[in-house]
Amino acid sequence: MARVFVYGTLKKGQPNYKHMINTAKGLAKFQGRGRTVEKYPLVIAGKYNIPYMLNIPGTGHHVAGEIYSVDDQMLRFLDEFEGCPDMYQRTLMRIEVVEWEGKGGAGETRAAAEGVVECFVYSTTTYPPEWVGLPYHDSYDSSGKHGLSYVLRESR
């Protein structure tokens, strides 16, 4: 199992969460909530209002999201869904645990006690330069006060 941190449309209550609970795509077990240890710019960009975490460590905010434990099948699905490696790149990042729900072996307990876990995160280094000038968010909600509603793939 691999640990994945999601910060956008795959979170609970967001438009693509349905994929995280679709066992035909693999298994994803909610572990808890967290935020990036380092600051990153989280922007909403493009004509479909997609959330992107720009891989510019030290700029922006500590981005909030959810931590999942996923199997290999789900990880392959997420790679494809996220357009990896062209649109997003899957990289390991340090995530501060805000609230831990995962119950498991000593490794899980120790990770939660230390407050920081390593997770795969889909961020991007392949973005138009003007995205750096967009507003930075610390958390994403598709129906947030930003007014930029996400456009589902099936509606594009």
Task: Summarize it.
By secondary structure, the chain is an alpha+beta fold. It has a single domain, classed as Hypothetical upf0131 protein ytfp (Roll), CATH 3.10.490. It has helices at 17-20, 72-81, 106-114; strands at residues 2-6, 28-36, 42-45, 50-53, 64-70, 89-100, 116-123.
SSE arrangement:
Elements: E1 2-6, H1 17-20, E2 28-36, E3 42-45, E4 50-53, E5 64-70, H2 72-81, E6 89-100, H3 106-114, E7 116-123
Parallel strand pairs: 1-7
Antiparallel strand pairs: 1-5, 2-5, 2-6, 3-4, 6-7
What keywords describe this structure?
single chain; 156 residues; alpha+beta; Hypothetical upf0131 protein ytfp; five-stranded mixed beta barrel
Structure write-up:
The protein has a single domain, classed as Hypothetical upf0131 protein ytfp. It is built from 3 helices and 7 strands, in the order E-H-E-E-E-E-H-E-H-E. It has helices at residues 17-20, 72-81, 106-114, and strands spanning 2-6, 28-36, 42-45, 50-53, 64-70, 89-100, 116-123. The longest helix has 10 residues, at 72-81. The chain is globular, with a radius of gyration of 15 Å.
